[in-house]
Amino acid sequence: MTAAPEFAAIDWRGRPLRLEYVRIAPERTDAPLLVFLHEGLGSIAMWKDFPERLCEAGGFRGLVFSRPGYGRSTPRGPEETWDVDFMHRQAHEVLPAFFEAIGLEEKPWLFGHSDGASISLLYAARFPDRVAGLVVLAPHIFVEDVTVANIEQARLAYLETDLPKKLGRYHDDVDSAFWGWNRIWLHPPFKQWNIEAELDGIRCPVLAIQGIDDEYGTLAQIRGIAGRVPGTELLELPDCGHSPHRDQPEKAIVATVSFIEERNPRSGKTRV
Description:
With 272 residues, the chain is α/β, with parallel strands linked by helices. The protein has one domain: Rossmann fold (3-Layer(aba) Sandwich), CATH 3.40.50. The protein has ten helices and eight strands. It has helices spanning 44-47, 50-58, 86-101, 115-126, 145-160, 163-167, 174-185, 220-228, 244-247, 249-263; strands spanning 6-12, 15-24, 33-37, 61-65, 109-113, 133-137, 206-211, 233-237. A hairpin with a 2-residue loop joins strand 1 (6-12) and strand 2 (15-24). The radius of gyration is 17 Å and the shape is globular. The two termini are 19 Å apart.
């Protein structure tokens, strides 16, 4: 990400927070706006240059931010733990507060990955009149055994390898980022987490992308979205794991640009 981050101040449940964010091509005032929501261990920096590449390819504007606990945003408090509804709180409370803090009034497209994709779905279901559309990569709509097993492996890697050092490149407080995500996913009651019924509230276009070799979930996740949200388009990518924007970035970009342009026709040619 080439632009320097800005910071938005919000008050969340009585606690003041600073959220880092970056705008991409704000001068394209008539272009669709894509808001990027990162994965469970992600941040602005973790996206690397993908948001800029996607926005350049489609002539879009972009807004990339780090959720509380990640990147350079305010870390979790020393005693703060996340509960089973943590993604609901991000979708229903944090995201609206962030949009209000930066003065966002238009309907953006939400581009979410993994936990960020689930948060995007929950936001669109709760606020159907506030979003233009969704592009969700490797979303979770229920908990699978394969997901829990690999998150347990991630816990062991964090304790026994140099994974903290690697993740430390992307987070000011790497323990805040890792344990906030890892502990709730491995919390036994979280196995019952399920948002399938809530998807019925989504009214916008949805493109759902998942790798066939996703180590954190099966294709039942995106097929479950298609079964609930009429008109959902699916892209199932071979030779692709949990991060289509890293494993198959060109295909993710082409599919996203085509999907959005079909619903936001403009005079300029798409550049891919």
